[in-house]
From TrEMBL:
<dbReference type="InterPro" id="IPR058163">
    <property type="entry name" value="LysR-type_TF_proteobact-type"/>
</dbReference>
<dbReference type="GO" id="GO:0003700">
    <property type="term" value="F:DNA-binding transcription factor activity"/>
</dbReference>
<keyword id="KW-0805">Transcription regulation</keyword>
<protein>
    <submittedName>
        <fullName>LysR substrate-binding domain-containing protein</fullName>
    </submittedName>
</protein>
<comment type="similarity">
    <text>Belongs to the LysR transcriptional regulatory family.</text>
</comment>
<keyword id="KW-0804">Transcription</keyword>
<feature type="domain" description="HTH lysR-type">
    <location>
        <begin position="7"/>
        <end position="64"/>
    </location>
</feature>
<dbReference type="GO" id="GO:0006351">
    <property type="term" value="P:DNA-templated transcription"/>
</dbReference>
<dbReference type="Pfam" id="PF03466">
    <property type="entry name" value="LysR_substrate"/>
</dbReference>
<dbReference type="Pfam" id="PF00126">
    <property type="entry name" value="HTH_1"/>
</dbReference>
<dbReference type="GO" id="GO:0043565">
    <property type="term" value="F:sequence-specific DNA binding"/>
</dbReference>
<dbReference type="InterPro" id="IPR005119">
    <property type="entry name" value="LysR_subst-bd"/>
</dbReference>
<dbReference type="InterPro" id="IPR036388">
    <property type="entry name" value="WH-like_DNA-bd_sf"/>
</dbReference>
<dbReference type="InterPro" id="IPR036390">
    <property type="entry name" value="WH_DNA-bd_sf"/>
</dbReference>
<dbReference type="InterPro" id="IPR000847">
    <property type="entry name" value="LysR_HTH_N"/>
</dbReference>
<keyword id="KW-0238">DNA-binding</keyword>
């Protein structure tokens, strides 16, 4: 008998049930097959192994020495299979929604709303992956993405939601280093500006204010979340969308240093080419409505 061959599974199940329950009759009832079928399966297994496993008696069946050894292994193997099947089935029944998301939006807006979201959609589980650089969504990686960018920057945009105002913020401690007075916009380049890139975002903001100012970055922090954390710790001035700093402005951890503000980019939902699940469709609708309700002046009208 080749060592890599496995005994027939149905025969193992019949043998295990007969040995555990002590009779072919009880095994047939447990497995919902006929008594002769149990006998044939056991005989096939014994022939396959070349050894007797069960002895029939007037009261049922008893295990031989070889049968006892094989029954222990068979019972463990069947339990392992049953347990693995249960785990896989439970995971299949769990409804996971995998979301790629720009980091600052994930930590500062989406995560605080998760409890409310779960109450509205019982049983829905979220797997949120912060990603500062994705431009499209692959179904193998996620079910949808939440990005922030300019038109044409992302591929597979399903919905453009809001276009929030962008403005400079800093901590009260950093403002105090500026003699407690907010600098004029044209004086910002002489301050410690915190960058998420090589200076492009700040320069775009200056240009939108009709100011011919150019700045460059000595350190690029890639994520608005990092830049705003640095700003709240007094390291300088960062640009923020109102979506990201609403709470910190309210509790005084950050302050606006000027009323100058401009809407530059949009929050967008990206989807893979494949059809969306019901949960993904529901989430997108909920997300769009929640953002538009919280930031109505930033809402984009769709035709």
């Amino acid at each position: 008998m080749p060592s890599d061959r496995l005994p027939p599974l149905n025969a193992i199940r019949a043998f295990e049930a007969a040995a555990r329950l002590g009779s072919y009759v009880s095994a047939s009832r447990a497995l919902h097959v006929t008594q002769p079928a149990i006998g044939r399966h056991v005989k096939n297994l014994e022939d396959w192994l070349g050894v007797q496993l069960l002895e029939r008696t007037p009261r049922g069946v008893t295990l031989t020495a070889a049968g006892l050894e094989f029954h222990q292994a068979a019972s463990q193997a069947l339990k392992l299979l049953a347990d693995a099947g249960s785990r896989v089935a439970r995971r299949q029944q769990e409804r996971w929604l995998r979301i790629l998301c720009v980091p600052a939006f994930a930590s500062r807006w989406l995560t605080p709303h998760i409890d409310a979201l779960r109450r509205l959609r019982p049983g829905l589980k979220l797997a949120i992956e912060p990603n500062a650089s994705f431009t499209s969504v692959d179904a193998r990686q996620a079910d949808l993405g939440i990005g922030y960018g300019l038109p044409g920057e992302h591929v597979g945009v399903f919905l453009t939601m809001i276009k929030p105002q962008v403005f400079p913020v800093c901590s009260p401690a950093y403002l105090a280093t500026l003699s407690g007075k907010s600098p004029h916009v044209q004086d910002l380049p002489s301050c410690n500006l915190i960058h998420v890139d090589d200076g492009t975002w700040w320069n775009s903001w200056f240009a939108a204010q009709q100011l011919p100012l150019k700045v460059s970055s000595n350190a690029s922090h890639m994520s608005n979340d990092i830049a705003l954390n640095l700003a709240s710790r007094g390291h300088g001035i960062a640009l923020a969308t109102e979506v990201l700093v609403k709470d910190e402005l309210a509790d005084g951890a950050l302050v606006r240093i000027t009323e100058a503000a401009i809407a530059l980019e949009t929050y967008q939902v990206l989807t893979p080419p494949q059809p969306l699940s019901e949960d993904a469709e529901w989430f997108i609708e909920w997300l769009n409505e929640a953002l538009r309700e919280e930031f109505p002046h930033a809402a984009i009208e769709h035709n």
